[in-house]
UniProtKB/TrEMBL annotation:
HAMAP family: AroQ (MF_00169). Keywords: Amino-acid biosynthesis, Aromatic amino acid biosynthesis, Lyase. Belongs to the type-II 3-dehydroquinase family. GO terms for molecular function: 3-dehydroquinate dehydratase activity. The record marks 18 as: Transition state stabilizer. It holds the Pfam family DHquinase_II. It catalyses: 3-dehydroquinate = 3-dehydroshikimate + H2O. Catalyzes a trans-dehydration via an enolate intermediate. Substrate binds at residues 74, 80, 87, 101-102, 111. Its EC number is 4.2.1.10. This is 3-dehydroquinate dehydratase. The active site is at residues 23, 100.
Amino acid sequence: MPKVLVLHGPNLNMLGKREPDVYGHETLDQVNNRLIKMGTEMGLTVETYQSNHEGHLIDRIHSAEGTVDAILINPGALTHYSYALRDALASIAVPAIEVHISNIHQRESFRERSVTAPVTHGQIVGFGTFGYELALTAVVKTLHVFD
């Protein structure tokens, strides 16, 4: 079965508690469980990982080479300034889709720019946690995981 790695960056472990008016009331465990179930129904193996530490996320990206077929990543605040995370994504031949719960392009000016988006296959923003489901569908439809 094709494997998808879902990476959640800093503070996403606080989903459901942190600014629920922006990020919703669903917890990270609920999101992950839904993605694993949906992935199974789509014929995918979904592995999830969350870290508040940039280096841990980079290590996980590096280890994805040759072990997963695609990455879904919500880099959290690292989106806006982590050239190290950007370079990690660019250094592997695994396609990545960037996901954001809120529409980063309609928020504070410091959140509008993504340094990671240019090295991803695409970006899904502003659909709440449903964006992760859209990204899983994009893996199947546009990245040709089953070829």
